[in-house]
């Protein structure tokens, strides 16, 4: 499904860009990785939702070895 009509980016393009990252990149960083930039901004909410889903999935797969955002957040809270 196309999520950014200005740059003709699909949800799959965004997911592929996120790859195996354990961080939660900004929308601007996602665009930079894909070699483009936001134009009208209508897609921002959709891209944020994809980034959030990706980050949540990463936390579900956390091995508890301190490498992910969830582990680092736990360390900061302690
Ligand atoms: S729809 Fe993505 S910048 Fe316009």
UniProtKB/TrEMBL annotation:
Residue span(s) of domain BFD-like [2Fe-2S]-binding: 2-52
InterPro entries per UniProt: BFD-like_2Fe2S-bd_dom, BFD-like_2Fe2S-bd_dom_sf
Matching Pfam families: Fer2_BFD
Highest taxon of source: Bacteria
Protein name from the UniProt record: (2Fe-2S)-binding protein
Native species: Methylocystis borbori
Origin organism lineage: Bacteria, Pseudomonadati, Pseudomonadota, Alphaproteobacteria, Hyphomicrobiales
